[in-house]
Amino acid sequence: MLERELTVSNRLGLHARATAKLVQALAPFRCSVTLQAKGREVNAKSIMGVMLLAAGQGTPVIVRTDGEDEGSAMEAVVALFECRFDEGA
Known about the structure:
- By secondary structure, this protein is of the alpha+beta class.
- The chain is 34% helix and 26% strand.
- The protein is globular.
- The relative contact order is 0.32.
């Protein structure tokens, strides 16, 4: 299992568009991926689950990947957070 803390840095946070990008990026991976924020832990492959986090800009999020391709899945999540979900600031 891999774990990493990231911070939501895009201006609108994990809104519908950013959440859809995250879920689509994770769809090909076989491992389980969870996000934890504000006392909740959700399946990162579920749009509704991620939306329930209501993680706005500046929210710390713990990402956990567990399974055969966990490293690649973690890289995909980190890349999305680092590029601010392609939303600029």
